[in-house]
């Protein structure tokens, strides 16, 4: 069921920003609809895509299905289900459109890519051959039969390593045809404690993390969220473009620290290590918060960068900066959409996840007003 969102999403949809720009226009997002299916509701939205005609494809990680909503908001079909057979999923994580117009699904637990027509007809199942990526951060097409990946290549969280890998798609498989390490990647701070009874490795609150995306040409873009600059990376010459605004850091306050240390994520630290462990963890928390939460590309090739902090003037919204591929600033805006999974922008529409006060997920669709 689709319902109007003028009321629910009015906050965070305008062009306001805590740091307004006088050099670039402010875009806004006009609410179009909110997808709130009743039977069954979304379990957890792992990813989503917009179709060429404005239809919406939602990947549900709990039901292991892809639910399709037409441009008029009516749920028209669903395909996929839990399992290991053709067209079935165990841990579906990502959707992406292929150059041929098919919808590709990355299934981590089954270790494969599955492609479907927009109507849900199974087109093919492809398994990796000697792919060194243990966990993918990003994947994107660079040609009709070529996929590029970036991800973790080392299983040791204390000594992580990342690589860029190009794979060629053949019948039923995809295999590496090129690979390069990414030594410039910066990793999150980790809290590590090991003794005879306890082994804990946890990310430190407010630590930066590496963010990656492939543009429509298959080029890799990178940001360490603890820094305000973004980079485009070339397989032939390393980092070939770096840009970004000068942003004032946002300090981690005493209240932020207390709330972070009280989270359920760190219950084991509190229970097993007590005050000494909590103090050790607190000492690792950075002084400032990360700058960015996510970035992604629209169908025109523009780069959309979502800031991590909610706005003071608009506590339900995040600032978004839009750039051309040469780093030229195009616009700024504010959105109430969640940073994960990443929103999609296609044919003037923007779609992404919103969550209510108890965490129930819906998918909101907006018209981009320029």
Question: How does this structure look, described?
Answer:
This protein has 370 residues and is mainly beta. The protein has a single domain (2-250, 288-369), classed as 6 Propeller (Neuraminidase). 6% of the residues lie in helices and 46% in strands. The chain has two helices and 29 strands. It has helices spanning 254-261, 267-282; strands at residues 2-3, 28-35, 45-50, 56-60, 65-69, 75-79, 81-82, 88-89, 92-97, 103-107, 112-116, 122-128, 135-143, 146-152, 162-170, 173-181, 190-194, 199-203, 210-214, 220-224, 230-234, 238-243, 292-297, 303-310, 318-323, 329-335, 344-346, 349-355, 361-369. The strands form seven sheets. An eight-stranded mixed β-sheet has the order 9-10-11-12-16-15-14-13, with no helix packed on it. The radius of gyration is 21 Å and the shape is globular. The two termini are 28 Å apart. Residues 1-21 have low confidence and may be disordered.
What is the fold named in CATH at topology level? Neuraminidase
Major sheet size, sense and barrel closure: 8 strands, mixed
Write down the Rg.
Answer: 21 Å
Work out the number of β strands: 29
Write out the CATH superfamily name: TolB, C-terminal domain
| Helix count from the secondary structure assignment | 2
CATH top level assignment: Mainly Beta
Q: How many distinct folded domains?
A: 1
Mean pLDDT: 90
CATH architecture: 6 Propeller
> What class, by secondary structure content?
mainly beta
Q: How would you classify the quaternary structure?
A: single chain
Name the helicity range: under 10%
- Per DSSP, what share of the residues sits in E-state strands of 2 or more residues? over 45%
Distance between the termini: 28 Å
Global shape: globular
The residue ranges in which pLDDT falls below 50 over 5 or more consecutive positions are: 1-21
Strand order of the largest sheet: 9-10-11-12-16-15-14-13
